Amino acid sequence: MSHIEESIELDVPVRAAYNQWTQFEDFPHFMDGVERVDQVTDASTHWVTKIAGVEREFDADITEQIPDERIAWTSVSGPKQAGVVTFHHLGADRSKVMLQMEYAPEAFAEAVGDTLGLVRRKTKGDLERFKTFIESRGAETGAWRGEV
């Protein structure tokens, strides 16, 4: 299993960061390679990804969810992965999102990409796009989803 740990500070309240992160259907807006995420039940999601021309579908279960603090998941089909995202209050309009994930590369090309740090860079890029996505939403509306 490979392990990734990345974090990013945001200019939004912790509640806004948590509320946006739990809008799984919005993931394609900031996660590179994510084509679609469907929330099947309160505790399960179905993912469609396309990375380097390879399309994959898998299901993941939410194993822990504490509002404004953390959300954890594990895959139940497809690529083996599990992780947790934690949300940290830094001030009235500042927060930090930390992502920790373990995964098992499935194919030779994925193992090579993992060795070269491609997955870590992709994850860091996803968090940077999340920052842009959520901060621009607040700037456009004057409030963040769930914050009115």
From TrEMBL:
Please list the residue ranges annotated as the Coenzyme Q-binding protein COQ10 START domain: 11-129
Q: Which domain of life is it from?
A: Bacteria
Pfam families named in the record: Polyketide_cyc
Residues annotated as transmembrane: none
**Record-given protein name:** SRPBCC family protein
